[in-house]
Amino acid sequence: MKFAASRLAQVKPSASAWVSQAAKAAIAAGEDVIDLGLGEPDFDTPAHIIEAAHQAALNSETRWIMLNLPSNPAGAVYSNAELRALGAVLAKHPDVLILSDEIYEHILFDGRKFQSFAVANPSLKDRTLTVNGVSKAYAMTGWRIGYCAGPQALIATMTKVQSQICSGACAIAQAAAAVALSGPQDDVRRFCAAFEERRNLVVDRIALIDGLTLDPPGGAFYGFIGSAALIGAKTPSGEILSNDAEITAYILSAPSIAAVPGSAYELSPFFRISTAASMDLLSTAMDRLGAAVSKLTLA
C-alpha cells in the first residue's frame, strides 16, 4: 500500500513493509516517513497497518492505497476483520482510493478463505479498484489476460488510456480465460493443494538450516527467507557476504539456486524463492541450500 509523509513511501501487506527510493531521499532530507518495520506475515497485530492508513489518508498528497493479498513476496493474508478495520479508517477519508490486487486469491493455505477488500467493505466500492487475472490460479501466465472491476467513471478512463497503449488482448486468450473462469474449478483446487504441500516442504526444510528463517506463507507460491544471520559470513573462498544481494549471488554460484534478493523489494536482509516447482526439485534445492549455508563461517 502507498502512504506518504511529504513524499510517497511504499508498504506491502506481507511480512514486510518496504520503503521506496523516494522515501529514502525524504528520510535523508530530514522528512518524516513511516517505516512499519518487519512483523508477522499475517499481521497478527493489524494496528500497524491501520496506523499506516491513518498517516497516509491524513496526507493531502495521498491518492491511492495499494493492497496485494495474498502477497508477493511473503504470501501474507488479511482476515475479513483486518480488512474491515482498514476500511473503517479509509471511510473517513473520501479522497483516498483503494487498489486491491487479488491475483493470488485462489492460492490459500491452511484452510483460509479468500477475502476481497471490496466485499469486506461494500461502502467503499465506489472508490475501490479490484485487479485480478488468470496467470496464477489457472497456470496461464503466458496468455497475458488480466481484468479489473471498479467505478464506471474510472474504468471508462482506464479504457481510454489502455486503447492507446495496445490494440487489445488476443481473442484466443480471451476465449480461453473465459473457459477457465466459468468452467470446472477442480484443477484450481488441485493446484492449491500442490502449492500447499510444496510450501510445507520448504518451511520444514528451512527450519533445519541454521542462519535462515521463514514465516509460513498464508498463500501465493513464494518463500521469503530471512538471512540476517548470514550478513558478515565468510564464504569458503574468503569473501564476506555484506548484503542479501551477495547472499543470493553466493547461493547461485555455489549450489545453483536462483533467488531474488530482498533488496529488490527494498526489504533486506531476505531473499525470495519460488515454490512453483516439483517436490523433487524443491527437495534438491533445499539440500543444496543447506549444504551451501553450512560451508559459511558466520560472523
UniProtKB/TrEMBL annotation:
Gene3D superfamilies: Aspartate Aminotransferase, domain 1, Type I PLP-dependent aspartate aminotransferase-like (Major domain). It comes from the Bacteria. GO terms for molecular function: L-aspartate:2-oxoglutarate aminotransferase activity; pyridoxal phosphate binding. It catalyses: L-aspartate + 2-oxoglutarate = oxaloacetate + L-glutamate. The keyword Cell inner membrane does not apply. Residues 55-280 form the Aminotransferase class I/classII large domain. It holds the Pfam family Aminotran_1_2. It comes from Planktotalea frisia. GO terms for biological process: amino acid metabolic process. Its EC number is 2.6.1.-. Belongs to the class-I pyridoxal-phosphate-dependent aminotransferase family. InterPro entries: Aminotransferase_I/II_large, AspAT/PAT-like, NHTrfase_class1_PyrdxlP-BS, PyrdxlP-dep_Trfase, PyrdxlP-dep_Trfase_major, PyrdxlP-dep_Trfase_small. The keyword Coiled coil does not apply. The lineage of its organism: Bacteria, Pseudomonadati, Pseudomonadota, Alphaproteobacteria, Rhodobacterales. Its cofactor is pyridoxal 5'-phosphate. This is Aminotransferase. Keywords: Aminotransferase, Pyridoxal phosphate, Transferase.
